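On clarity, I found the account of how folds are encoded harder to follow than it need be. Since the whole study asks how a given chain folds, the encoding of that fold should be made plain. The format is easy to grasp once an entry is in front of the reader. For illustration, here is how one protein appears when written out as sequence plus structure tokens.
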Amino acid sequence: MHESEVVEFCHVCGGREFKHVPVLWPALVSAWGLSEDESRYIDIQQGTQCVTCGSNVRSIALARAIMRLGDSDGPLTHFVSAPGQASLRALEINEAGSLHSILRRLPGHTLASYPECDMTSLPFPDGAFDIVIHSDTLEHVADPLKGLKECRRVLDDRGGLVFTVPVVVGRLSRSRTTLPASYHGCEGSEDPGMLVHTEFGADVWALVISAGFLSCELVPFRFPAGLGIVARST
């Protein structure tokens, strides 16, 4: 089969049918200074879903990145039930959207709820996990570098971190410290846990390396809408 003829599928469940429901609102687009093209692909990232399992493009990219780290063809529903995963020690920081109900099937699964659990001071010993997973959480952490360093600390030396953040690929990351408050979630939300501290751009990989990881790989799904990030310790 020619590359252009490959049928796209959901890396969460294997489904092949998708639908789109718009999710961005004008105030958020304005606060982030998004262009028409940026608004379009970020809306796809959050609003285009697999009809079968309901996973959006962000979650599908994350699932694909988990498969990449695990050297598996997936989908994720098959991966978690494979005999070889019985001993996998997995830390999920915050519920990773539609993936949470699947990830918790892993015998060695641990959930650290956010924001109750401080990502910059995780209550786990060094090297306690083989994989750490979080989805669209790091942008809400006041010190994202410290959060990533904590992820590295609790990982086994042979382990890896898999995560997503909203990435505006045509710009560099910026702090929102001196900018008006912006919240994710839904229009009108002022939930302190959803306050955005960092807008991530194409240099997100540099933060990962600065946190002590030896490599950073971007795993796309419907690029530039979906980007899963794989950070390896070795």
The two ends are 35 Å apart (CA to CA). Residues 57-69 form the longest helix (13 residues). Residues 1-6 have pLDDT under 50 and may be disordered.
